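Typical record was shown:
=====
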Amino acid sequence: MIGAALGALWGVAWAVALALGGSGAGGLAGALAMLLLPSLAGGALAARLPRLRRSAAPAPPSLGASLGTALALPLLFGGAFVAFRFVLEHSFDLLDEVAAVFAASILVFAVTVALGLIALARRWPGPAGRLAALPWLVAALLTAALASRVTAHILGFEPLSLLLVGASAALAAAALAPLVPAGWRARPAVASGVTLLACAVLAGSLALYALDPATRDAAWSGAPLPRSLAAVLADLTDADDDGISGSLGHGDCDDADPAVFPGQSETPSNGRDDNCRGGDVDKADVLALWRPETGPRAPASGQDLGLERRPWNVLLITLDATRADHLSTYGYGRPTSPNLDQLAQRSLTFDAAWSPSNFTATSLYSVMTGLYPSAFLQGTRIVARPGLTLAERLAAAGYQTEAIVDLHPALPHVYAGFARVDDSLGVRASKAVRNRSTASTADELASLGVAALSRHGGAEAPPFFLWMHLSEPHAEYLAHPGIDFGDADLDRYDAEIAAADAAVGRLLAAARDQGRLADTVIVVTSDHGESFGEHGVYTHGQSVYQEEIHVPLLISLPDGALPPEGRRLMQPMDLTDLMPTLLDVIGSPPGPPAHGETLLPMALRGQPLRTPEAVCEVRLPYARLQAWRRGDTKVIFDDRLGVVRTFDLSLDPQERAPQRGASAASDEAARWLDRQLALPRTFAGAPGSRPEPAP
């Protein structure tokens, strides 16, 4: 029992340290709920070690061996840490190289440590006494540091973090057991009492975690380690394997049915609450949204806007991971986007555009189809259906369609409809994502784009649709000669944006020199933003706060369609509106039902949008989120946690003080999402015939 008691004390101390380190009192209960169980288990397992079972060692180890071990262990763990960081920054085939480098480094350092200990023991053979506990304690602290500072920050390493917590508690128990006073060791009731008290604290903290959304929220949004352990707990208690648990306060209302979970789109009038929020929706209510003339979702007929509609060329440029508030175009203090600044002078610039998701594969398919992710996701997989993408629509209208991208792996569901796809730079760009020394692909991509602009066009040539995607601002953030904002991650991110802007500048210059501004719609936007710890996470894919979903959107109409005039538009919207807008510009009839609507009546005539809400959806193995915005009100449904957060962005633009729990705004958002997201399942059919899922 002494091992379990010491492990529990180690877990409590660890949780308190995390709370003092930034998660605060609100995160203490969550940290206790996550750390105590593996700490108790680790300490109990440590009791099986001979070091804890024997009452007294027959001969203390040498002082040299103890100090040598204490010095060697930091070298061992430090070497593994350096090797791990090297792999993260220089690896493409990540998992294989991690395993190889770790195995090699541990072997080399283990041999070095052994030889060093032998040498020290010979030179300094005196008794070590209580210093014998030092190597074990150092190992416990280093294991705790590895769990807290390394593995907890890496998606997919959550089970390893759990094992490291247990190992750290076991090592701590092994270190501290011989230091326990003999009188206490002779009284098992002391250890039993500590263990039972720890179990009571664990039960209480788990109950608080289950019953109090704020505690659950703090556990997931505070220090990375409790969040990592909470993810393991959520996965272990997800009975139907649909990505959301039905236990301990998590939101799955039917954990025996994988088709029912928070975030699922409703199938109207099926007698079932598919998304565990507000009950079933009536099919008549959903169809009324799409009733011609009166339904707010019905495709709009081309009204007179003083705009010439004809088959204009279309140049779509998407920048990866580019948040709007880091562009000088949107008021950022650094000159990161001088070329976009110039483009904005002749463009419709949308100041409150959201990406429909925070992950490239999902977001780009939403952009290309005008559909929210729940319309085409089966679980976490994208199911592509023919005839939905912008490229397919334009190809059917006689357009030459071409995509030049540096995406890897390829996204065939997004490429649908493109007669020509050049992703030859994709493999190298993916290396640049992990390797800061790999050369940028932006300049070469721009050269390919300039050549493509030269190929297309001509008096008798059909119109073209050219899509360019630049991965440049994506992590890891490369340094660029001639662009120096500093060496911190945020500084290099800004440099990446500036490098991408320079590449866009080359494309815009080529379009101008070739006379394309007179006959080409030019669009610049991004698939999602990027986090830098504002809400405890980094890069993207993990939150729907503004830093991850507020993106640039510039639409430059052809000189022949409308005299060039820059306009700033503050209306919240999302990128599902882009496809209907482009179809409206070229005079194409509306196609299959889509969530987006044309922005032209609002942008050119000041008419209100028929659906003035913006939506972002995330359905990934490690994040299940929906965000909804109307005016300055923003509601986040964290479906995996069963937590709702409401913000007033006019008063809290940094999203620091959420109103948690149900509110009038969150109730309205839930009703809106129920009705509006039911559309594709009503019209296009909930996956009846299931095509092959996109990778």
The radius of gyration is 29 Å. The chain has three domains: 2-60+128-236, 248-288+631-695, 313-605. Residues 53-72, 87-97, 124-128, 684-695 have pLDDT under 50 and may be disordered.
